[in-house]
Automatic annotation (TrEMBL):
SUPFAM superfamilies cross-referenced by the UniProt entry: Cupredoxins, Cytochrome c oxidase subunit II-like, transmembrane region
Family annotation (InterPro entries): CcO_II, CcO_II-like_C, COX_ARM, Cupredoxin, CuRO_UO_II, Cyt_c_oxidase_su2_TM_dom, Cyt_c_oxidase_su2_TM_sf, Cyt_o_ubiquinol_oxidase_su2
Subcellular localization, as worded in the UniProt entry: Cell membrane
Protein name as annotated: Ubiquinol oxidase polypeptide II
PROSITE patterns linked to this entry: COX2_CUA, COX2_TM, PROKAR_LIPOPROTEIN
Keywords of this entry: Cell membrane, Electron transport, Lipoprotein, Membrane, Oxidoreductase, Palmitate, Respiratory chain, Signal, Transmembrane, Transmembrane helix, Transport
Location of region: Disordered: 319-377
Main location: membrane
Domain Cytochrome oxidase subunit II copper A binding, residue spans: 134-246
Domain Cytochrome oxidase subunit II transmembrane region profile as annotated: residue spans: 22-119
Keyword Methyltransferase: no
Entry-linked PANTHER family: CYTOCHROME BO(3) UBIQUINOL OXIDASE SUBUNIT 2, CYTOCHROME C OXIDASE, SUBUNIT II
Amino acid sequence: MTSRSPILRRSRRLFALAAPGLLGGCNMVVMNPTGDIAMQERNLILIALAMMLLVIIPVMALTIIFAWRYRKGRAPETYDPTFDHSTRIEVVVWSIPLLIIFCLGVITWITTHTLDPFRPLDRIAPGRPIPPGTEPLDIQVVAMDWKWLFIYPKQGIATVNELDLPVDVPVRFSITSTSQMNTFYAPTLAGMIYAMPGMQSMLHAVLNKPGDSWGYSGNYTGRGFSDMRFQLHGVDRAGFDRWVAQVKASPNALSTGSYLTLEKPSEKAPVMHFSSVSTNLFYQALNRCVAPGSVCTADIMRKDRALDADHGGPFAIDGAPSSPATMSMGAPTNATPAAAVTPEQRDAGLPARGPAKPGTTTAISLPVPGAPRAARI
């Protein structure tokens, strides 16, 4: 054991010297964002870290100071056996944490609204507002087992495991999943967004620098999870147009049949290009009715609401006579509002909510696929 000790010591020294070089190859993508949303989130992390260090550093320093000053064998300069309270100490001990909590609360309140993934962007970068009339690039995202499908509806193309974005162009993602709960995560672009079957999440983001990076699922989904990644390419506008033309030259078309084949679980799926996309494919994927003969969940919910209305149920679209059961689900109203169509009803093809009659129960809206909001992680 003694003969091996020098070898172990030398190995440890070599490892200590080599560690910085090995870590130098790591790319902390969260700390090196290329998009404005990711930049704001990175800054939020640094601000929270700095405010926590305001407490941690003094505590660690005072721990060393107290241990040295009041060490065994050192006679104290003053000793007061009756000491039990110090207003100055109490003020310091309580005021600093309260100020930090207050500052973190204000920052959290502001960023919760400004970084809401459903909120349209109001700037491309700091000091660069979005020009009036700018249309965002729409991209529909479908999380599959274990691959990512990206549909560009305006361009009429689709890709698998490849996402190309033009620099300084606002992007509006509509996100859903086929069978499992996933998280859509491109660290250099924005934060994590849940992708859930039968529901639609949204994300507004923008890429400010050209370059290549990766995106992936941040939610474990089974055997092929580790390879559920996609390439993220940031290009200029001319480069994006060339890429769209390249995809359009592909002989493959994303029909309902090819979608059903693509939907089957597969691991390490390669990049695929589709020059055309079946009409309303994302809507069918969202409502789980891509297979021929299947009924969309939006249609099922509309029929259920209509049936509930016929029986005077609490989830009727129109006002229904009040009863003890319905009164427990909603509040009676004497107002007679004008008929209106909510965005959820319009997306699902539901009729307008009729005016309520005096003494009836206010109808309660069921969630429609596409309506639920998912928070940014």
